[in-house]
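Our preliminary data section would be incomplete without showing what the modeling component actually yields. Below, a chain of 183 amino acids is followed by its predicted structure, encoded as tokens that our downstream tools consume directly.
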Amino acid sequence: MNVVPTRAFFTRGVGKHKNNLESFEKALRAAKIEKFNLVKVSSIFPPSCKIVTRSVGLRRLKPGSIVYCVMAEERTNEPNRLVGAGIGLAIPARGEQYGYISEHHGFGMQEKRMADYVEDMAASMLATTLDIDFDADADYDARREVYKMSGEIVKTRAYVQTAEGDKNGLWTTVVSAAIFVFD
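Predicted structure:
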């Protein structure tokens, strides 16, 4: 059986609750994906896969469906501790070539920094498969210019969710996900 998604959408959310699992459920609700059986997959963005809005993607799914996703999540119950979860995307210029999705989760990383980090990871993974010559030690802005100038990478994006741990010690969960849809 060859199962290749034809569409994908991106979503994110934050949840807070006294119980760890329920904070995760609330984050999934905020992301509008709580009603699906989520199966985490690795980081390949299928060739010719179309990016759609969350609302369009959700209309194509039914409650209880088994749904494949790339997901990053992080949780804390430490007051004011910064948590973050991010998804990066890099799409090649040639439609028949696959792209990459990266995921990262952690503590203490501001939203902009995490966005650059996950976008850079996805673009770097794609660049290595396309044999784009770049300096891995250069900062992301410099590498981004190399990627753009190569003409091989057409689009990069980041979808990040950060939050500070609840001041009263409730569990705080953040999620960011790429959700795959089949026609």
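The chain has a mean pLDDT of 93. Strands lie at 7-17, 37-40, 44-45, 50-51, 66-76, 82-92, 99-107, 153-164, 171-181. Preliminary results of this kind motivate Aim 1 of the renewal.
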